[in-house]
Amino acid sequence: MAIAAGVAMSPSLAYAGPRQVTVPRGKPYPVLAIGVYGAGTCEVYPVRDIRIASGPAHGAAQLVTVATKLSKDTGVCAGTATKAPVVVYRSAAGFTGVDHLTVTWMAPSHTDNVRFVPNEMEIEITVK
User: Considering the entire predicted model, what is its pTM?
Assistant: First the structure.
C-alpha cells in the first residue's frame, strides 16, 4: 500500500485479536486502513459507518480518506487502486508508552456483498 500501515480484507476474511502498531512520538501516523475487496474479482466494495468507538487516552485519532493500492498480501489483487478510509493517530506531546483505540465499521457480508455486517478492531499503539 502507499501508506505506512494498512489492512485490506476480502469479504471472506475476518480480523482476529488486537492490531499492534509502533508509531513515532508526536507525529501523525496511519494505524489502520479499512478496505474490502472481492478476492476473485479484485472489485473494491464500500465500507460505511466507520467510527472511532473509543478514542486514545494519550493522543488523538482521526479518519481520513487516501488514494492507495491494495498491498502484496492481497495476492492477485495487489496493486489495485482504491480510496481507503484510514485511521491516523498522533500521540500527545511528550507521551511514550502504550495507547489504545477501537474502530468500528460496517462492511459487506461475505455471503452476498449486499448486506452489511458490523466489524470492530482494537488497536494497541506503542509510542516510541
Answer: 0.78
